[in-house]
Structures are given as structure tokens and as C-alpha cells.
Amino acid sequence: MVCSSNQNRSMEAHSLLKKQGFDVSSYGTGAHVKLPGPSLREPNVYDFGTPYKQMFDDLRRKDPELYKRNGILPMLKRNSSVKLAPQRWQDNAADGSFDIVLTFEEKVFDMVVEDLHSRDQVLMKTVLIINLEVKDNHEEAAIGARLALDLCQAIEDAESWEESIDDIIVAFENKHRRKLLYSISFY
């Protein structure tokens, strides 16, 4: 599961899929982790690897009412129950191989595809990269997580996703009225 900051969309999906028994990881592709601040011009910026609990404590000290009201504190609390800290996609090579990478924004999809193409193709393993466009807000992230679960279950149920991916994508798009981008890559 990959979004920009490994905070909202990827973590909502990570949490749900983990609860459903999937072996799942999540990442962000940005240069830094950005969370809303008191204004658009004043985001809270953290390095990848900064523990969610540390971000939670920092924002709770700054303005507990604001960050509770806008959903950031509950989101960080959820995130810290799933894993220690946000991870950056471009730094994940040591994490092992992936069968499927699901992104939640087209520019993130492009970055993941480009990154996989630039890696040494040592494993020559097939990976399916799918983009499910999801707006970066709490309500849409929850919907996106359920859609991601539905899509992952459909792929898991297939005898061979490589042979049936076109049918899986068309069925998903028809059922949910959402367009998907996908690419098959090797790494």
C-alpha cells in the first residue's frame, strides 16, 4: 500500500488488510512526511522513520483541539497500532519482494513504476502495480481501504492473476465505477 506520506490512505488500507489476514506493508513516496498544520502554508513536516507516537505527542503538545478535530491525532494513534513509523518506498529494497503494489494517487503510481524500473532486476520477479485513485481525506481513505480489500480478495481468489488480471480489473471497474491504472513489471 503506497501513498505520499504513509499516513492516511496507505495506512487505512494497511490496517484493514492486516486485520483481514493479508501480509501487507505500507509506504510513502514523498521526500518528507507532511501533515496538515494550522494553515496550508504551515504544514507539520517530519522525516520518514519518525515514530507515529512521536508525531502524536508533538501535535498534541502544539494544539490538541485542532489536531483532534481535524482527525490527525486519531489517525496517528491508529497508525502507531499498525507499525512504528512511516517508511519511504524508495528505501524499501531490503524489505523483500512484493506480488502486488497498490497506490492511491497517479503521481505515486508513476513514482513506484519508475523506481521499480530503475532497480537492478536481480529477482526477475513479476509484480503487479495498480493505482486506485483516492482523495487524501479520512472519509475517502476509509472507502479506499474497503475497495483495496475487495480488489486484493479478487486477485487472491484468482487461480493465476497473470492470466486473469484484465478480467479482474474490468469486473472491479464495473462493480465500483472506479477506473484503475495498472502495470506489470519485473524486479
Count of helices?
7
Order of helices and strands: EHEEEHHHEHEHHE
Question: What multimeric state do the chains show?
Answer: single chain
How would you sum up the major sheet? 3 strands, mixed
Mean pLDDT: 94
Beta content: 5-15%
Strand order of the largest sheet: 5-6-7
Shape: globular
Structural class: alpha/beta
Task: Catalogue the unreliable spans.
Answer: none
Distance between the termini: 17 Å
Question: What value does the Rg take, in angstroms?
Answer: 17 Å
Number of strands: 7
- In helices, the fraction of residues equals 40-55%
Subcellular location: Nucleus
Keywords: Hydrolase, mRNA processing, Nucleus, Protein phosphatase
GO cellular component, one term: nucleus
Family: Belongs to the SSU72 phosphatase family.
